[in-house]
Design a protein that fits this description.
By secondary structure, the chain is of the alpha/beta class. The protein has one domain: TIM Barrel (Alpha-Beta Barrel), CATH 3.20.20. Helix content is 45%, strand content 15%. It is built from twelve helices and eight strands. It has an eight-stranded parallel sheet. The two termini are 14 Å apart.
Length: 254
């Protein structure tokens, strides 16, 4: 039985004081819920403070990105070692906004996943198609390519070392647009992802790997999404910036 995971991606939002207010409210509302995994991914500058606030609660800490080198002359970047030292257990990798605005390729995603494994972080690997891809019936081609290239040469790490990773399916056309894939559309792609995980790794890995849905997730559409066979949670954007809406999403998934 796969354990549900709800993660909030705060993106470039919330000052340190605002982040403290939000996480304090979230801790009060959902900090004692242990029936699923709850992760928050704030901006880097708030990681340490949030780590201290969520101590003793069920809420876990994640980062929004990381670099694939351990250290060095990489101005503006942050390493996996820095993230674990700040209290992170998870890191988002390959979000569509990183791909779109910062030119991250599937090859870069692959390097980052390997680096996350080496630093003991659980990578949340984002994949998803553009609107034109869906219109041109290229969704499955795009998803397959992102998986094959992004998960390249990871069989030993995953199968033998039992390294955990999470896939987040985020149709780019649904991120921040208010549009949401129907539960049936989302399930179809999630099932395709699981099928390809079996081909890349094996059936056991495919069955055990958690696949989140992301893209304008809200309390009123989460129930229908989480009821689908292959949807194991959500990567929440805008709705994670308010304690009320994020808490309701968590509660729907209990």
């Amino acid at each position: 039985m796969r354990r549900t995971i709800i993660a909030g991606n705060w993106k470039m939002n919330k000052t340190c004081s605002e982040a403290v207010d939000l996480i304090t409210s979230l801790k009060e509302r959902v900090g004692n819920i242990s029936s699923l995994d709850i992760v928050v991914c704030p901006p880097y500058v708030s990681l340490r403070e949030i780590k201290n606030i969520i101590k003793g609660s069920e809420i876990k800490l994640g980062a929004q990105n990381m670099y694939f080198e351990l250290s060095g002359a990489y101005t503006g970047e942050i390493s996996g070692e820095m993230l674990t030292d700040a209290g992170c257990e998870y890191t988002i990798i390959g979000h569509s906004e990183r791909r779109m605005y910062f030119g991250e390729t599937n090859g870069v995603v692959n390097k980052k996943v390997k680096a996350a494994f080496s630093q003991g972080l659980i990578p949340v690997i984002c994949i998803g198609e553009l609107l034109e891809d869906r219109v041109e019936n290229k969704t499955f081609d795009v998803i397959k390519s992102q998986m094959i290239e992004g998960l390249k040469n990871l069989n030993t790490e995953v199968i033998n070392s039992k390294k955990e990773f999470i896939i987040a399916y985020e149709p780019v056309w649904a991120i921040g647009t208010g549009k949401v894939a129907t539960p049936e559309q989302a399930q179809e792609v999630h099932a395709f992802i699981r099928k390809n995980l079996a081909l890349i790794f094996n059936e056991n890995t495919a069955s055990a790997t958690r696949i989140q849905y992301g893209g304008s997730v809200k309390p009123d559409n989460m129930k229908a999404l989480i009821s689908q066979k292959d949807i194991d949670g959500a990567l929440v954007g805008g709705a994670s910036l308010k304690a009320d809406s994020f808490s309701k999403i968590v509660e729907v998934c209990q």
